[in-house]
Design a protein that fits this description.
mainly beta, flat, five-stranded antiparallel sheet, four-stranded antiparallel sheet
Length: 279
């Protein structure tokens, strides 16, 4: 059995110079999911609700993920495992048809809750750090517990279906709009409607996500060399004497802007450019 590797220089033919200890986050468990979220309640803005009341049909638009709230709690009957509760907040847009007029764009909020159980190992140590924390004791970073950190990676969902229904006994009041973070409300510019409406919209979304649990840990890794950048820093615009035409000559011709690719992306994947919260 080979001897245990210790920090320090390493004699190896693979150009490893030494072994060093680093402090990083180790992934203990992760999962990926493909959720088809059916009949999510659509909470429109007040102006959008007035349009929905007069609408005869609805056409699906797009959905944008605004924010993800994550909560981690230990599983009492299985040590080392944790529940990860995730709440997704979506900004959904659609087009409502009112009579023979042109469709009117409306927007609103959809909320989706998800829970997974992952292994996050155990740890009972309290972690203190000299990193500044203005609201902590002695203005240092203080952690009272050693829970793992949950990370959710997610892309904007795909709108699979959208339907306009009349409120009746088959669709009882399911108004659960509460505790919406202020940053979410600010993305709509006005109050959201949740009251005695006669028509509602329900949305079906397709969501891809990856959820993982991480912990701070110390790892022993091989070091090949220092990571030095090979590219020199360009000083474009430093003096202001550059010839703009000469700079323009180095710009590549945007062929794709004039001739869009005729073939889909590899694997049939759709590309959604990232957008900000309130765009």
């Amino acid at each position: 059995m080979p001897d245990k590797t210790m920090p320090g220089p390493v004699q190896d033919s693979a150009c490893v110079r030494e072994a060093v200890c680093i402090h990083t986050k180790k992934i203990y468990d992760s999962c990926k999911d493909k959720d088809c979220i059916e009949d999510l309640r659509f909470y429109p803005t007040q102006s959008a609700q007035s349009v929905i009341e007069r609408a005869v049909s609805i056409r699906a638009g797009k959905a944008e993920l605004l924010y993800v709230y994550i909560d981690v709690e230990p599983v009492g009957f299985n040590r080392g495992f944790f529940t990860v509760d995730v709440r997704y907040y979506y900004k959904v847009t659609a087009e409502a048809f009112v009579g023979a007029a042109r469709p009117v764009e409306i927007c609103g909020l959809c909320v989706f809750d998800k829970r997974v159980i992952l292994f996050g190992s155990e740890g009972a140590a309290k972690i203190f750090s000299s990193q500044t924390s203005l609201d902590g004791l002695d203005e240092q970073l203080l952690r009272q517990s050693n829970l793992p950190t949950a990370v959710v990676e997610v892309v904007d969902p795909i709108v699979l279906n959208m339907k306009l229904v009349d409120v009746c006994e088959c669709h009882p009041c399911d108004c659960q709009l509460s505790d919406i973070p202020p940053c979410i409300c600010n993305c709509f510019g006005c109050e959201l409607c949740c009251g005695s409406e006669s028509k509602r919209i329900y949305v079906t979304l397709g969501q891809f996500s990856i959820i993982r649990l991480e912990r701070d840990t110390q790892l022993l890794i091989p070091v090949y060399d220092y990571c030095l950048p090979e590219k020199e820093c360009a000083c474009g615009g430093c003096s202001g004497d550059e010839d703009p035409c000469e700079i323009f000559r180095h710009v590549k011709f945007p062929v794709n802007e004039f001739f869009p690719p005729s073939n889909p992306l590899p694997g049939g994947e759709c590309h959604h450019p990232g957008k900000g919260c309130c765009s």
